[in-house]
Design a protein that fits this description.
Layout: E1 6-10, E2 14-18, E3 32-36, H1 38-48, E4 52-59, H2 63-74, E5 78-84, E6 90-95, E7 104-108, H3 125-131, E8 134-138, H4 139-142, H5 146-161, E9 165-169, H6 174-177, H7 181-194, E10 198-200, H8 203-208, H9 219-233, E11 239-247, E12 253-261, E13 264-267, E14 272-274, H10 282-295, H11 300-314, H12 326-337
Parallel strand pairs: 1-4, 1-8, 2-6, 4-5, 8-9, 9-10, 10-11
Antiparallel strand pairs: 2-3, 6-7, 11-12, 12-13, 12-14
């Protein structure tokens, strides 16, 4: 790896409770638990790429918090900016889809979690900003409540003052914003985008969240038209990246990555087509690949191919958290170049 960096991710630690196999919650009599969340996934993936992956979060001060911390350490995540307090972890119940039946996620106890009830003074923004080179934020976290949003904005501002980079993944989830979601989310997204250096978003985010318009109907053509407008509107953004996904008739998925940097759009030449074992967390794998490529000064073509391959491999591993090393992703890229796909 070219450069080892101290890279932090701000986000909630979630407890994932998964139904065995393809059963429904109404059928199952047991659940498998693990700990994840966007911040966990990104920090862990970057640690596997050789960086120091640091989590900024808050865990309950009880046995549940200890169990979460123990699992995060196994993932190679530094806990120096994880505080303790409160009593709860946000939970979600996962039912895996099969065939025509989609997977289903049901959230529980999220607004009462230690992270989402963290008081105003719990994070030392300036100390964190001085100790890292980059901080990753997520749109799911942005949707939680005003207190969490203030933590995000203040930390991002501190990072910018200290010369660090801010990464923002739009990750819009309509269920978290409720009625009038796009209109409610827009000012908060705009505030984060004004502070961002690297952004994960696609043309749907530009149209629905930012209210941009286009007469084009093809997704790629929409992207080509709107990307320069976003870069001009939010002048601090140096990189915009994202994916286009197609679900095929045989239940395989096809994925293409794109990266817009300094006015040039780079797209993976062919979509990657693969079988899906566990889809959750693949977007975090892609974002981590983009971050790693930027920190390592890769050429855009290599960065977007690396990120797309990382996302593909994340679909083949159980659990939210990407588990592939840089070497494994590079090997997948080489095999793809020869016409093979790791399934």
């Amino acid at each position: 790896m070219a450069n080892r960096a101290r890279v932090a991710s701000f986000g909630e630690v979630m407890m994932r409770l998964q139904v065995p196999g393809y059963e429904l919650l109404s059928q199952a009599d047991s659940l498998r638990y693990s700990f994840s969340g966007t911040g966990v996934n990104v920090a862990s993936a970057l640690a596997r790429f050789g960086h120091e992956g640091i989590l900024i979060s808050r865990l309950p001060d009880n046995a549940l918090g200890e169990a979460a911390a123990a699992n995060l350490r196994k993932l190679g995540i530094s806990m120096e900016y994880v505080s303790r307090g409160g009593n709860y972890l946000g939970m979600y119940f996962l039912e895996s889809g099969f065939g025509a039946r989609p997977g289903r996620v049901t959230y529980s106890n999220r607004q009462e979690s230690s992270f989402n009830t963290a008081p105003s003074a719990v994070y030392d923004y300036e100390a964190i900003a001085a100790g890292v080179e980059l901080v990753h934020f997520c749109g799911i976290t942005l949707a939680m409540n005003d207190g969490v949003r203030q933590h995000m904005f203040k930390l991002a501002e501190a990072v910018k003052r200290n010369g660090g980079m801010v990464v923002f993944d739009c990750n819009y989830r309509p269920t978290h914003w409720g009625d009038g979601g796009y209109a409610k989310a827009k000012p908060h997204y705009e505030q984060m985008l004004q502070l961002s250096d690297i952004v994960m978003m696609n043309e749907r985010d530009m149209i629905h969240i930012l209210g941009m318009s286009t007469d084009r109907t093809d997704r790629l053509e929409q992207l080509k038209e709107l990307l320069p407008q976003v870069a001009q509107r939010f002048a601090g953004i140096s990189v915009i990246a994202g994916t286009h996904r197609t679900i095929n008739g045989d239940n395989t998925h096809s994925l293409r990555g794109f990266l817009y940097r300094h006015g040039v759009l780079t797209i993976t030449p062919e979509p990657l087509t693969f079988a899906v074992y566990d889809r959750i967390g693949a977007g975090d794998a892609f974002a981590s690949g983009i971050i790693h490529g930027e920190l390592s000064a890769y050429e855009p073509k290599r960065t977007v191919r690396f990120a797309a391959a990382a996302a593909m491999l994340a679909h083949t591993v159980v659990g939210d958290t990407p588990m592939s090393t840089e070497r494994e992703i590079e090997r997948a890229m080489a095999e793809l170049a020869n016409g093979d796909v790791i399934r």
